[in-house]
Please model this.
Amino acid sequence: MAFIPQQNSSQPIQINDELNQLLDVLPPNICHYIKNHSECNHLIEVVMDLGRLPEARFPEYSVYLGATLISATDLEYTIQKIGAFSSDNRAGIEKTLHRISAIRNRKGSIIGLTCRVGRAVFGTISIIKDLIETGKSILLLGRPGVGKTTALREIARVLADDFHKRVVIIDTSNEIAGDSDVPHSSIGRARRMQVSAPELQHRVMIEAVENHMPEVIVIDEIGTELEALAARTIAERGVQLVGTAHGNEIENLMKNPTLSDLVGGIQSVTLGDEEAKRRGCQKTVLERKAPPTFEIAIEILERQKWNIHQDVACAIDSLLRNRKPNTEIRTVSQNGEVSIDHQKSNDEQLLKTFEHNPFNVVTQPKGWRASGKMVPIPTLESKSVDKLNETLEFDRLLDASWYQFYDKDKEDKMKISGPNGEDLPIHIYPYGIGRFQLEQVIKILRLPIVVTKDLDNADVVIALRSYLKNQSKLRQVAKMRQIPIHGIKSNTVPQITRTLQKLLGINETQVSEIRDLHLFTKGDEDDELEALEEARLAIEQIVLPKCQPVELLPRSAKVRGMQHELIEHYHLHSDSFGEEPNRRLRIYPT
Model:
């Protein structure tokens, strides 16, 4: 992770807090304590609750102001000096950005006040100035008090004054431009539309677009479904949006059914069999429903540390697939220098690894293979052995592949390597292969193989050759993850069996004895087993020893298909002939 300093850093940050106007509305004893406090310039808010000590809150701590409890007279003193409270229990001080919020009892009387200091901070958005001038819609996220509204106010001023755009601010609680008919000077040339009641914010948003032809609309605290829909309508009309929403991270919006439309919305989709196999996932998955309303999302982690998602669509798609999206961590130093730390996604990290190691060279083994204790089992010799000995050897190799040596220290048996030195069990990722046949082969032959749906955890990919021709993406991803691909000619039990045997290092020089005819059945029907037993006896007693062709009894198309697979296992050829219902198989010697 490299830090890249931006060449053009902005002017030093300037703060205008107009603190004296707020202190003038507070009771004299509280005002006296705050003025004499050494860090009064860092004050965040003053809390006055009936019957409690007044409290001053700073960024890192809180202190009580004196030893006198707040009385109804103290609350009334402040209420008389500020403007009227709106329906959302908020009021302000004329020509300032300070906000006073009220707490009422069940009768409607005010029993508590939160007096929040409003500061106009200039120079805070140098960290994202390059993103603002792109004209893309920007969504700010972060916990309360981290500076979202302050950044929103500065963005509106820069867009209006520096980029000369028509900017309209939808100021629901008069927190952006102050509680006055004349907007605060901190928003520059931007215009402000006040909202009479919070529940009408979505209407004012649409009214601003229809009546005042803005190029940019600034919205604070998008919190309802109607406001989210209004934001999408505005974005679809080509107007740049800059807003804030409730949530610390972009994942919070994904899980919020009310606001998920801001990032494109989430819907449940049922995939087809082929698509589910291609992805290696369940048939029912979550996907993004539409393009995001906001193209860029910014998570304000701290006042000088922001996490940037420059492509919200890609970020949401990655998160839905449990992958880490591409992000930028931008920080501002004390001298105003901006540094960018690029956070790569999982796929890009894999691609970067592949670029540095294009020939898939494994530089350092892992696990038991790196311990030096593993001794590969020799593969089966190709010299003639009778069927019984080969079957016993086959069983021995499979059993030995699970337990290789005895550790005297731990006094238990450990799994190590298979016949060719691979770690067991082998995890395979099937693509286009019948899962029933695959699991049937593994179960009946007791192979140390596990079928996985996660390509990241796979040791090898097994796919039909016909599918691989048109799946360059699968080949590319497997290459990035350094996973070998084995192609199978047809989706049959003998082909699957041979491929799995090759993965385990078992040379199929002789035809192994069929130990369970259920391997070739699709169920437990007696007629299926009877037909397979007929074909097995014909092969082992007539075709192989006497080299004579044999005709079997007429069977249904389904049963004939099972017989074909059984015959293929013996490396023999067979044909169907005759008319239904007397159509039957003929087995030919090699």
